[in-house]
Design goal:
The protein is mostly helical and about 210 residues long. It has ten helices and no strands. Helix 2 runs antiparallel to helix 10, helix 3 packs parallel to helix 7 and helix 3 runs antiparallel to helix 9.
Amino acid sequence: MDPILVIKGIIIGFLAACPIGAVAILCIHRTISNGFWPGLVMGIGSAFGDFVYAIITGFSISFISDFLTSHRTILGIIGGILMICLGIKIIRTHPAKQMREQRSKTYKNKFFNDFMASFALTVSNPLTIIAFSGLFMAAGSVSISYLETTITLAGVILGAMLWWLLLVSIINIFRKKVHLRHILWINRITGTCVCIFGTSIILLVTVFTDKL
């Protein structure tokens, strides 16, 4: 195994995951509200969403890429609506309810829902494939063998997870300093930001779709 390919993959995965978008804001919110593991699960869901696009880019699966590109408008609208709905739900969530949920032993049953919500929001943004295409080209990871691509992709998922582990760990350090009244405002700010992201994606894929 060529360690250089793994390192390249880790860099690609890390850089693709680190921009602060709607999923990152949701991940930060979940960490503050419910703790380290719920936040990390949301991050892992996003990492696997990025991994799907990394596979498509790495192996140049053209028919999937063409499908996502040609249907980016409807996918963007669906993703935007999902973000807006999530934003509204967060705004309307009462901090006391979140604290009860945090203490509940049944929260582990919601890990799968958090994972799938984060995964769905990530894969519903087909513009991600453009970012991966640029990163793969910048790293010189195009036109390589299937084995080399597989090794690089293993690095990509590691790099993406490394980013989410780093982000959640940092947020979790300061979590205990957040009081109930702070969570109320965090909910409002987070929900508003997610709604703005959702609206921006809808506008981007409908008004400016010809320029993408």
